[in-house]
Amino acid sequence: MTTPRPPLNVLFLCTHNSARSILAEALLNAMGNGRFRAYSAGSSPRPHQQPHPLGLQVLQKAGIPTDGLRSKSWDEFATADAPAMDLIVTVCDSAAGEVCPIWPGHPATAHWGYADPSAGDGSDEAQLEAFRVTLLALKRRLELLINLPEEKLEKAALQATARALAAHA
């Protein structure tokens, strides 16, 4: 009988940790069926930064729990007592270009770039649609991740697997 592996810890990074990374964290936790545990953080969240209200709205409308979501610095995950990450994914281009902390355990890394749904100053409907489109794009890629066979999620293969998923929009 095989022992089930512990959940794969995934950290989604963005600059402010208010939109894309929050959406990815909530989505993967809802979709991962206990095989994944998602977190999110930002390289430089603003003081008193909160998750974007439109992001929370599209998550709630999609039936995805938002309890406990908060904006936080990536420094929380670079300490010795932080959960050990298996995979770190940047979801915005600016965070991908920044010098990251040294992550304990040397996790696999990948960049899955998405446009910022909170950028721009269109109508409320247009901004809400931008969040909805980003949520759907993240969901498509995360469906690929959660449906991968176990061998593709082993530490030795995870780096190549996660980077290959960047080609799928």
UniProtKB/TrEMBL annotation:
Residues 8-148 form the Phosphotyrosine protein phosphatase I domain. It holds the Pfam family LMWPc. CDD domains: LMWP_ArsC. SMART domains: LMWPc. Keywords: Arsenical resistance. It comes from the Bacteria. GO terms for biological process: response to arsenic-containing substance. This is Arsenate reductase ArsC.
